Amino acid sequence: MSLNDLKSALPGYAKDLKLNLGSVIGNSDLPQQQLWGTVLACAIASRSPKVLAELEPEARENLTPEAYTAAKAAASVMAMNNVFYRTRHLLSDPEYGNLRAGLRMNVIGNPGVDKTDFELWSLAVSAINGCGMCLDSHEQILRKADVDRETVQEAVKIASVLQAVGATLDAEAVIAQA
What we know:
The chain has about 180 residues and is an all-alpha fold. About 75% of the residues lie in helices and about 0% in strands. The protein is built from 9 helices and no strands. It has helices at about 5-10, 15-25, 30-45, 50-60, 65-90, 105-110, 115-130, 130-145, 150-175. The two termini are about 25 Å apart. Helix 7 (about 115-130) packs antiparallel against helix 8. The chain has one domain: AhpD-like (Up-down Bundle), CATH 1.20.1290.10.
């Protein structure tokens, strides 16, 4: 299983996705750990069994055990945080913002890898999950750590393409069963 298998699985009408998938992963300027951590966290966040099954082995091969675990942790903790903070933001009563969250998220403070990498993965997952508060928070932390906008955008491009690939392949699987 591989990136090439995932590209081959895409239907003809999704040619742009196939090209973008090859570009955002195959031609990325991100360092290996940032790239494959972003890919793994986003594959998990996409909720697509096919995307995860095809990309997880390559991610595991290209990441240290610590980075592999941290990327999974970013997807996990952001799945919780994105729902919580997005809801806080969307509720019309601003007093919810003054209440203590009371949710454990220790991994953010001690992810086991470079904090910048973990923040990048958290930002990418937040893009998939659509949490503006989390996007702003992680982007600000990354920018304060001198991460350039191009790197931030690269992670968001990976997130958007993997989400679209997952949606397309999952829809095709349902259509094929009909």
